[in-house]
């Protein structure tokens, strides 16, 4: 159905079955949307479905008494998710396409050029990028596509974190912004509207905080454990900065701050984002956090 303002989004195609893409697919399907999850191989899709199943079971345990009701819930939600390795066909009937692939500008630009050619002319196209300018991802697209292009930035773990940043470019039209906001509410999340600037709101504040925590450690002010305890018990954060760094991934953090320091609009050379020897060393040694079993802590 369509209306003169926001058009209701019911069919969603998510490109990328990693942690973020799987989480987005899961949440959309939980809230009764019809979802197609796309990745390059069946193995990647199976892995994504594995993440979703595990997380849904966790949600089901809290929501329903008894194994039968829990299994029924998991199956019902999974039943609304189709898997595909064919992006062109997968977007052909989509109301909304959300991209959550690798943080590489060229990869995203090429992907969207292709998706725009196969998606309906009314579809909203969204990127879940956390560090690349939405405007730059949309740059090669025609004006008719740019007006339907937006950032929808989810947070990890997607099923649990209530926020989605809705990132508007100069070119995005009101209907696109309204549809995106309506979609975010319809999947049980809270939207925060933001202009297309590096880090949007959350990461623009979170990355300096994480980097300053690492610099406290480098100066020998306190141990990771004491800094984490201090911020959890003294400032009410659910995780301390080092736990959060390890959780997000040290490679991801390095990639974001290095990119901003080098070429972030208005951030080039900003000392908040200057390289940290400690972070560089951990990443160079493959200690990327929880996912590799070691970061600032061992897992
Ligand atoms: N799927 C479903 N539910 C999940 C989940 C998952 N993958 N992970 C956690 N949960 C739920 C649990 O079931 C539990 O629910 P309940 O409170 O209703 O019982 C709740 O989350 C809390 O989980 P736990 O009790 O296991 O553990 P914690 O209390 O330590 O919470 C946490 C875990 C939710 C991750 C919490 O520590 C937290 O909020 N941490 C901060 C996370 C954060 O800041 N994320 C943003 C990172 S930055 C980012 O994503 C941007 C990127 O661009 C860099």
UniProtKB/TrEMBL annotation:
- Catalyzed reactions per annotation: a (3S)-3-hydroxyacyl-CoA + NAD(+) = a 3-oxoacyl-CoA + NADH + H(+)
Where mainly located?
A: mitochondrion
Q: Where along this sequence does the record place binding of CoA?
A: 55, 62, 130
Enzyme Commission number(s) from the entry: 1.1.1.35
- Where does the record place the 3-hydroxyacyl-CoA dehydrogenase C-terminal domain? 199-299
Q: List each copy of the 3-hydroxyacyl-CoA dehydrogenase NAD binding domain by range.
A: 12-196
SUPFAM superfamilies registered for this protein in UniProt:
6-phosphogluconate dehydrogenase C-terminal domain-like (SSF48179), NAD(P)-binding Rossmann-fold domains (SSF51735)
Q: Which Pfam families match?
A: 3HCDH, 3HCDH_N
| Top-level lineage group | Eukaryota
| Molecular function via GO | (3S)-3-hydroxyacyl-CoA dehydrogenase (NAD+) activity; NAD+ binding
| GO-annotated cellular components | mitochondrial matrix
Its subcellular locations are: Mitochondrion matrix
InterPro entries in UniProt: 3-OHacyl-CoA_DH, 3-OHacyl-CoA_DH_CS, 3-OHacyl-CoA_DH_NAD-bd, 3HC_DH_C, 6-PGluconate_DH-like_C_sf, 6PGD_dom2, Mito_3-hydroxyacyl-CoA_DH, NAD(P)-bd_dom_sf
Q: Where is this site: Important for catalytic activity?
A: 153
Q: In which pathway does it act?
A: Lipid metabolism; fatty acid beta-oxidation
The residues that the entry says bind NAD(+) are 16-21, 39, 103, 108, 130, 156, 291
How far does the signal peptide extend, from start to end residue? none
Among the GO biological process terms of this entry, one is: fatty acid beta-oxidation
Q: Which key words tag this protein in UniProt?
A: Fatty acid metabolism, Lipid metabolism, Mitochondrion, NAD, Oxidoreductase
Which family does the UniProt entry place this protein in?
Answer: Belongs to the 3-hydroxyacyl-CoA dehydrogenase family.
- Full protein name: 3-hydroxyacyl-CoA dehydrogenase
Organism of provenance: Coemansia brasiliensis
């Amino acid at each position: 159905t369509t209306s003169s303002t926001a058009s209701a989004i019911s069919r969603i195609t998510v490109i990328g079955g990693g942690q973020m893409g799987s989480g987005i697919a899961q949440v959309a399907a939980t809230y009764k949307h019809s979802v197609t999850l796309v990745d390059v191989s069946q193995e990647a899709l199976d892995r994504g479905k594995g993440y979703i199943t595990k997380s849904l079971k966790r949600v089901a345990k809290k929501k329903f008494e008894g194994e039968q009701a829990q299994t029924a819930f998991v199956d019902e939600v999974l039943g609304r998710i189709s898997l595909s390795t064919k992006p062109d066909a997968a977007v052909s009937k989509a109301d909304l396409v959300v991209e959550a692939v690798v943080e590489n500008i060229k990869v995203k630009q090429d992907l969207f050029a292709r998706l725009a050619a196969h998606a309906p002319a009314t579809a909203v196209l969204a990127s879940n990028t956390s560090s690349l300018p939405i405007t730059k991802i949309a740059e090669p697209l025609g004006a008719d596509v740019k007006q339907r292009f937006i950032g929808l930035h989810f947070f990890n773990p997607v099923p649990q974190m209530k926020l989605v940043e809705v990132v508007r470019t100069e070119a995005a039209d009101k209907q696109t912004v309204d549809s995106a906001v309506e979609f975010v509410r319809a999947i049980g999340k809270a939207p925060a509207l933001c202009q297309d600037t590096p880090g949007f709101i959350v990461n623009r504040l979170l990355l300096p905080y994480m980097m300053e925590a690492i610099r406290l450690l480098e100066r020998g002010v306190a141990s990771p454990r004491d800094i984490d305890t201090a911020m959890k018990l003294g400032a009410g954060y659910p995780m301390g900065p080092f736990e959060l760094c390890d959780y997000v991934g040290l490679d991801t953090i390095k990639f974001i701050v290095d990119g901003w320091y080098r070429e972030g609009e208005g951030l080039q050379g900003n000392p908040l984002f200057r390289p940290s020897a400690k972070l560089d060393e951990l990443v160079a040694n493959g200690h990327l956090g929880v996912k590799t079993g070691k970061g600032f802590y061992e897992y």
